[in-house]
Write a structure and sequence with these properties.
The longest helix has 20 residues, at 222-241. The protein has helices at residues 90-105, 148-156, 165-183, 188-201, 207-220, 222-241, 246-258, 264-274, 287-290, 310-314; strands at 2-3, 11-15, 18-24, 27-28, 40-48, 55-63, 69-74, 80-85, 110-111. Helix 3 (165-183) packs antiparallel against helix 4 (188-201) and helix 6 (222-241) packs antiparallel against helix 7 (246-258). Helix content is 40%, strand content 15%. By secondary structure, it is α+β, with helices and mostly antiparallel strands. Mean pLDDT is 74; it is low at 115-146. The strands form two sheets. The chain has a seven-stranded antiparallel β-sheet with strand order 8-7-6-5-3-2-9, with helices on one face. It has a two-stranded antiparallel ribbon with strand order 1-4. Strand 2 (11-15) and strand 3 (18-24) form a beta hairpin.
């Protein structure tokens, strides 16, 4: 597990009532005890509770002994999940990490402005430039930040930004989507309302993530579940018995794929099962092997048949 307190964050985000820290190259937690670690972390996005100062959720880019980068997560219970290999690209990692945090916690990340030092006295340039902030600069730009606790204390002193209605609406939407998908008791009207809200969200937030949530909502709605069950039953009957019309079945498969209920691979599998399979022909035997076999003549030159001894003839 990464030790996010081993270095100062380079970016800070507000995640609801908590805070998200973007950290580069933190040490492993085992380093506190002087133990070696076979895994190092190049990028970490950690959601930290502003009350307990403890990590709630972390997304990491891990590097093992074979220099392969893996996208992983640590939950509140410390459970480690490996989500697969990933290229070492900071912006790509952050996009994936922010999407995972939004899905897991239902919170959108809002970057916090980092105040800078005022220009030095006597600076007479026509375009004054603020001091560049480094990973070790405190939020107020006045003192270096050497540990996470100091950074959080300084951040608490910063004035909280005003509420953003767009972010608040998106946070409510994420909570409602999570409730709809987890309970499994939502109605078609609720699914239509959430789908309409997600279409609005796609204009302000990553469209790909919103479209994925739309497909998940449709797949969980009662109407689409009934359509999917009826299609599966009709497909099974046609494949096993040959009864039914193939045209409406193909149209329904295409409609479910267009709605995002079926993937392209699932559609291809259903189509392949509907194709008539060619009859399996067994190789016939050569003509010579099918010709009747003539009875072979009895061998000649056998010794004459001997008569049984008299004592065997008595036992007959």
């Amino acid at each position: 597990m990464p030790d996010i307190a081993s270095c100062a964050p380079t970016r800070v985000y507000r995640a609801g009532d908590d805070i998200a820290l973007f950290v580069r190259n933190p040490a492993a937690i085992a380093a506190r005890s002087g133990l070696p670690s076979a895994v190092h972390y190049s990028l970490v996005l950690a959601v930290v509770s502003r009350i307990t100062r403890m990590p709630l959720f972390m997304v990491t880019l891990e590097h093992g002994p074979f220099d392969t980068a893996w996208l992983c997560t640590f939950g509140t219970d410390g459970v480690h999940r490996n989500l697969g290999a990933m290229s070492v690209d900071e912006e790509q990692f952050f996009a994936h990490a922010a999407s995972i945090v939004s899905t897991e916690l239902g919170q959108m990340l809002v970057e916090l402005p980092m105040p800078q030092l005022p220009p030095p006295v006597g600076y007479s340039s026509a375009a004054p430039q603020a001091q560049a902030r480094t990973p070790q600069t405190a939020p107020n730009g006045k003192a270096p930040c050497h540990d996470l606790e100091q950074f959080l204390r300084m951040l608490d002193q910063e004035p909280a930004p005003g509420p953003d209605p767009t972010v608040a609406r998106m946070q409510d939407l994420m909570r409602n989507v999570a409730i709809y998908l987890n309970t499994g008791t939502g109605t078609d009207a609720e699914a239509a309302r959430l789908e309409h809200e997600l279409q609005w969200a796609a204009m302000h937030f990553p469209a790909r993530q919103c479209h994925t949530l739309v497909r998940s909502i449709r797949a969980a709605s009662p109407a689409y579940r009934r359509r999917l069950d009826l299609m599966k039953q009709a497909h099974f009957n046609f494949v096993t018995t040959g009864n039914g019309a193939i045209g409406p079945l193909l149209n329904e498969i295409a409609a479910l794929e267009a709605a995002g209920i079926l993937s392209a691979a699932e559609r291809a599998t259903l189509h392949n099962a509907l194709r008539p399979q060619p009859a399996v022909s067994r190789p016939s035997a050569p003509a010579a092997s099918r010709a009747p076999v003539a009875a072979s003549p009895l061998p000649t030159g056998l010794p004459p048949r001997q008569s049984k001894p008299w004592w065997r003839r008595l036992l007959r």
